[in-house]
Amino acid sequence: MWRSGLRQRVKELLMILPSCSFLPPSPSPSQHVAFTKKPLLSLANASLCSPGTMSTATNLDGIFKEKQVLRSKVRKSLKSMDPSLRSQEDDAIQSLVLEAPWFKSSQRLCAYITCSALREVDTSKLLSQILQNPTKDGSAQNAKKLYVPRVEDKNSHMRMLNISSMDDLIANSMDILEPAPVDQHGNAREDVMQANNPVDLFLLPGLAFDKSGRRLGRGGGYYDTFLRKYQELAEERDWRQPLLVALSYSLQIIDDGAIPVTLNDVPVDVLVSPAGVIPISQAALNRFDIGL
Ligand SMILES: Nc1nc2c(c(=O)[nH]1)N(C=O)[C@@H](CNc1ccc(C(=O)N[C@@H](CCC(=O)O)C(=O)O)cc1)CN2
Ligand SMILES: Nc1ncnc2c1ncn2[C@@H]1O[C@H](COP(=O)(O)OP(=O)(O)OP(=O)(O)O)[C@@H](O)[C@H]1O
């Protein structure tokens, strides 16, 4: 019942990004199939792409420049956001997530640890709910498993490692809290790519979003690289694809089409802002229909 092939997923995601700059005008089913195997566009050989159907190195440079301009604008707006509005929005967003059936039913989650210097939507209440001792409500079945990011190198390489407490975290060179690769007993932490069970939900950070699922990250390519690999893993294992949910302050939602994207950018399924939960992809609408 949960079988949801990556091919179907890519179709759904292509449907929600009709004006994506780098999508071929009307991809044929065979093109969709081709997209399932590799990163959607290799930046290294982008210049080999035929003009008219795909991007060239030159317009990729343009896109990356546009992304930088937009990042600077959004960073500025976030810096000048009123602290009491920020805190109201943090509460509203987290309450919406905590109440959502797709959050309540998730057993394995990947979430970011908010870095206040980056002015990201707060996840602290969500994390403490996820990590709460399951014996509190008497049922170990309600226990959720949490994986959080650890940057391994500057080559867009990030892992998601299992933690069981906020005490498992230490600040990295960017001042973001992340887990050490081994726990206090010297055992390697479980890497989500080696886990035996699927992740149900990703809670994603970002700088800007639109209501069609486009997401502008911080420019490292960490999440896009990771998400693509995870989607491939889920496809290989015949797992249901995880729901990709972005958390956004109101000012981070911008007009459709204003976020420049390349084929490497992974669209999100759901956007949560203080105004509410917006299901975007067909996968999200299907899950919302059945309450999961
Ligand atoms: N909380 C959190 N953890 C995360 C991410 C994230 O976005 N948020 N990441 C998501 O990738 C990865 C780390 N990537 C990062 C990429 C850039 C910056 C950063 O400080 N950027 C500065 C600008 C730096 C510059 O351009 O010189 C900034 O955005 O202000 C931080 C983390 C993994 N962990
Ligand atoms: N002009 C360029 N040509 C080729 N590659 C670039 C260029 N500018 C940036 N990159 C690389 O492209 C990758 C992805 O950048 P992108 O802007 O898509 O990141 P992002 O989506 O903001 O980040 P994340 O996925 O971590 O949220 C990064 O590894 C970056 O180093």
UniProtKB/TrEMBL annotation:
Catalytic activity: (6S)-5-formyl-5,6,7,8-tetrahydrofolate + ATP = (6R)-5,10-methenyltetrahydrofolate + ADP + phosphate
Segments forming a coiled coil: none
Cofactor(s), names only, from the UniProt record: Mg(2+)
GO biological process: folic acid-containing compound biosynthetic process; tetrahydrofolate interconversion
Keywords: ATP-binding, Magnesium, Metal-binding, Nucleotide-binding
Lineage: superkingdom: Eukaryota
EC number: 6.3.3.2
Keyword ATP-binding recorded: yes
A Pfam family it matches: 5-FTHF_cyc-lig
Gene Ontology MF, one: ATP binding
GO cellular component terms listed in the entry, alphabetical order: mitochondrion
Keyword Phosphoprotein: no
Family: Belongs to the 5-formyltetrahydrofolate cyclo-ligase family.
PANTHER family: 5-FORMYLTETRAHYDROFOLATE CYCLO-LIGASE, ATPASE INHIBITOR/5-FORMYLTETRAHYDROFOLATE CYCLO-LIGASE
Name of the protein: 5-formyltetrahydrofolate cyclo-ligase
The species this protein was found in: Populus euphratica (Euphrates poplar)
